[in-house]
Amino acid sequence: MSIETVPTSSSASTPIWHHIDDAECRRFQASVELVGKRWSSGILLAVAQGSSRFSEIVATVTGLSDRLASQRLKELEEAGLVHREVIATTPVQIHYSLTDRGADLMKSLQPLVWWGQRWAR
Fold first, then answer.
1. What's the CA gap between 17 and 3, in Å, rounded?
2. Mean pLDDT of the chain, nearest integer
């Protein structure tokens, strides 16, 4: 696997991040902080793997409390990564799913998941 590069005027290629300006750097940092916030990536992975109800998400992410699950799900919903659907039944059911933006993010995070499986201890 190679690092994506951008052609330059010379024969050598430069890593794509060489051309990231200050505004792009801030957006990247905000993205990393969002998914790097404790429990956020675990919740995203749980939803991506099919957990759609609150109790399923909490059960899937070991150590996640109800309070923090609720807080993180609200943050992920506000960020446009998770969709919350309220189903008017008795009792009311709430289902979570990835938005297109969230699914796109998960595609971007897949190499990190693979890296973690191989190298993280």
1. 10
2. 87
